[in-house]
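Record format v2
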Amino acid sequence: MTDNSAQPQHCTEATLVDGHALVFPTLRVLQADGSLYEQAQLPQIDKASALKIYHSCVFTRVLDERMLAAQRQGRISFYMTCTGEEAAVLGAAAALDDADMIMAQYREHAALHYRGFTLEQFMNQMFSNINDLGKGRQMPIHYGSKALHYMTISSPLGTQIPQAAGYAYGQKMRGEDNVTICFFGEGAASEGDFHAGLNMAAVHQAPVIFFCRNNGYAISTPAEEQYAGDGIAPRGVGYGIKTIRVDGNDMLAVLAATQLARQVALEQQCPVLIEAMSYRLGAHSSSDDPSGYRSKEEEQKWREHDPVLRYKLWLQAQGWWSESDDEALYQQYKQEVLAAVKVAEVLPMPELSTLVTDVYDEVPKHLSEQLEQVKTQVQQYPEYYRATAGKEHL
Amino acid sequence: MAKMNLLQAINEALDIAMGNDDTVVVFGEDVGHFGGVFRATAKLQDKFGKDRCFNTPLTEQGIIGFANGMAAQGMRPVAEIQFADYIFPAFDQIVNETAKFRYRSGNEFDVGGLTIRTPYGGGIAGGHYHSQSPEAYFTQTPGLKVVVPRNPEQAKGLLLASIRDNNPVIFFEPKRLYRASVGEVPEGDYEIPLSAAEVVKTGSDITLLGWGAQMELIEAAAKRAENDGISCEIIDLRTLMPWDVDTVAQSVINTGRLLISHEAPLSGGFAGEIAATIQEQCFLYLEAPIARVCGLDTPYPLSLEKEHMANEHKIFEAIKTCVNF
Ligand SMILES: Cc1ncc(C[n+]2csc(CCOP(=O)(O)OP(=O)(O)O)c2C)c(N)n1
């Protein structure tokens, strides 16, 4: 149960406590030049995992750049990047056990790559073709994989936050050695579901890590129009949840914070909130144009805090990475991504019958009848239904 | 008259409403400086200031609860929900609060000044979270008016009437047509009365009824039917609740047949309600069962969107079946 044993303090003069009375320290480990801050402690990390993290950084950068270009060429309908937030996402992912459930918002595909989602799987989802695990039903970037413990993305914001509390509570009841991590933006933290989810987790002591990527913007709305207090971290304290704030552009700091959060969540079977301070370097999505609401200078300032570059400098300082390794890895991923686009984009779309499956566990009569009507239509108008025509038997 | 698209018409209506009445306040996610993700509120903050046009935190529940409070106080809030798919976090505030404010207080309090604007509908490769047509949930809630315009001219006149109506109105904007629908729009201030359907075209063999973006598809199907010698009467319902039974019934008495088409799933859709009412009113005049051409009873898909939609071809085939019954 929660420890509510703090002794009450009394006063005889009305005293207002200001929200900012609680000053949140921000954990940082890595300096811009790749060296550690004085007295900073290195999280648990070995060469193999350090390089695995970096591979996912580069993969994500390449994927984001190429797929944004593919969207502009009209090859996919929509895209969202993780650019600028790779450390927040990967530092967290690398601190987890592979079987810890990840409930993401939509900008966390770097974590999915780290878990082992293949390039083909990414492509099949984005091209919503016949091999997409989600059967082509959702917009690009709404990935999910049961095998990799990555809950399929849902577009409505914040809905995963109370779900994560419940999922983690289930893990606790079953005596599992795992936690759940739930990612969301500072914008989504305004939704009612955020408050409901944190309170449920706190009262019922669920082993869940709430991970807020505070990237400064929710589409065009800057953080100062999103909340009046000192960010999201103090809310965790308000709900009785252990909370830590971290530099979200510092891979090692995020790793350290999440390792601690996981240890506490697991050992004490309780929720932990992490707020990672970062910046969304790209547009909100391929449908957005940030020049309408923020300056190039502001973006440039944040480019100087590039989390991937900072981390690379640290790897180089360890003697684990070189510029030529870097060049080669970028080249390799660029070629692989281009090749994978070409394969995925010509695969057929999901079978016509998937129109009515998975609505219920079995297809009810009224839906099989509706499918038959659609098949008749397709036969009547094969030109209009070009992608499905000729496959009505499926 | 000026030519403009549906978004510009909405922007103009908001501009006029705010200019004429200080109590009109416009807000929602990204609505302020940026002018909304579709730019329906562009320039309003520059013109009317941050107090009357602003960004809200990202909480639909908060937006509508806040709007209810403002409206109860006598203001005319125009709250934007960024996509109709995201109206559900505000469902409790709308269905239990907005709709029942007047009734439960014996008219001591009301939120009649409230208008909720939201883009709805599919055909934009948006999958199930950017394509829904949730109007039927709200037509089943007594106390709410539900309005859906089909083009820029209609949008401007209906939105002005909605904002000034003394009842809460949910105004569904067909986002597929935001930029695609361009037309002549009368200058200045004008209103199109709520709860009046419009006979868009007269005809004698069958009445085709719809609203919003569906009207385009109905009109296209009707053109093809006319080529086959079938004379179609076309009606835009415009306000779904309270709806104009008389205009529809009169038309069905003349044509003897009715086809209703909407984007939302068939089961529990508003077409069912219309069919039941018209069957009661026009039973002896009907020469064929009332036809419904609607979305499938599944969530809105991405890759099989064409197959799912109540499109022009499905409407055309249903017209022929109805006429040849
Ligand atoms: C309930 C709901 N309302 C609105 C939206 C539309 N929308 C999608 S992303 C977004 C902004 C999210 O901002 P934030 O949570 O800060 O995450 P970020 O995109 O910055 O990573 C909005 C308003 C949505 N998806 N769901």
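Chain A touches chain B through 50 residues (CB under 8 Å).
The CA atoms of residues 56 and 113 of chain A lie 6 Å apart.
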